[in-house]
Amino acid sequence: MAAMALAAQQGGASGIRANGAGDIRAIRAVTHLPIIGINKRWMEGYEVYITPDFAAAKEVAEAGADVIALDATARPRPRESLAELIGLIHTELGKPVFADVSNLNEGLVAVQLGADYIATTLSGYTPYSPRTRGPDFDLIRQLVADVGVPVIAEGRFWTLEEVSKAFDLGASAVVVGTAITNPREITRRFVQGVPV
Ligand SMILES: CC(=O)N[C@H](C=O)[C@@H](O)[C@H](O)[C@H](O)COP(=O)(O)O
């Protein structure tokens, strides 16, 4: 992961989003780029897994994340409420909060609760948000119009045109995951594009 982050930096990335204290510590050692840290933890009986509680947030902050990203959807949470979690990340860790949402209302609520950035990460991943084929441009547009904090476009970006469109719509940054980091899916896309 550190080598991949360094490659992304050399390629001109302006930040790294990474998962887990181990990877974040390794990435912190090789770059001064801002790190958006998440801590994926699956807990019995809960759908929320992106930094679901304060303990998960604290681990990645201590590992060197500059910003803490978390699931800010309306789904049930295992420990702290969303309001408590955002408050604790601010007061105890002194880090900004990057709220991954799946629709406009979740973005508005997260901002009311103090989130510093809103991202479209979870659009298409909650039972109540329909999955668009590519990025959810409608949600980017709606969030930019209404939330009043920087909007980060994330989820299913594969082409330069899609990235340009997100910036045209007012996104402050675009997070590209699979299309840069996952050789299996990159290969699959080429293979599926070849007529046989
Ligand atoms: C839904 C979920 O768990 N998303 C995760 C969030 O951190 C990652 O698995 C995604 O790769 C990331 O959001 C970037 O999206 P994409 O890989 O589509 O460019």
Calculate the mean pLDDT score and round it. Answer: 97
Helix/strand/pairing class, anyone?
Answer: alpha/beta
**Could you give a short account of the major beta sheet?**
7 strands, parallel
Number of strands: 7
CATH architecture: Alpha-Beta Barrel
- In helices, the fraction of residues equals 40-55%
Radius of gyration: 16 Å
Q: Name the CATH class.
A: Alpha Beta
Q: In CATH, what is the homologous superfamily?
A: Aldolase class I
Pathway: Amino-sugar metabolism; N-acetylneuraminate degradation; D-fructose 6-phosphate from N-acetylneuraminate: step 3/5
Function: Converts N-acetylmannosamine-6-phosphate (ManNAc-6-P) to N-acetylglucosamine-6-phosphate (GlcNAc-6-P).
Enzyme class: isomerase
Catalytic activity: an N-acyl-D-glucosamine 6-phosphate = an N-acyl-D-mannosamine 6-phosphate
Would you write up a description of this structure?
- GO terms for molecular function: N-acylglucosamine-6-phosphate 2-epimerase activity.
- Its EC number is 5.1.3.9.
- This is N-acylglucosamine-6-phosphate 2-epimerase.
- The protein is an alpha/beta fold and 196 residues long.
- The protein has a single domain (34-193), classed as TIM Barrel, CATH 3.20.20.
- It is 42% helix and 14% strand.
- The protein has helices at 2-10, 21-28, 54-63, 82-93, 104-112, 137-146, 160-168, 178-181, 183-193; strands at residues 16-19, 35-38, 67-71, 97-100, 117-119, 151-154, 173-175.
- The chain has a seven-stranded parallel β-sheet.
- Helix 1 (2-10) packs across helix 2 and helix 2 packs parallel to helix 3 (54-63).
- The longest helix is centred in the middle third of the chain and has 12 residues, at 82-93.
- The chain is globular and about 55 Å long.
- The protein starts with a helix and ends with a helix.
- It binds N-acetylmannosamine-6-phosphate.
- N-acetylmannosamine-6-phosphate (LRY) is lined by residues 38, 50, 121-122, 125, 154-157, 175-179.
- The site of N-acetylmannosamine-6-phosphate has 14 residues, from helix 8.
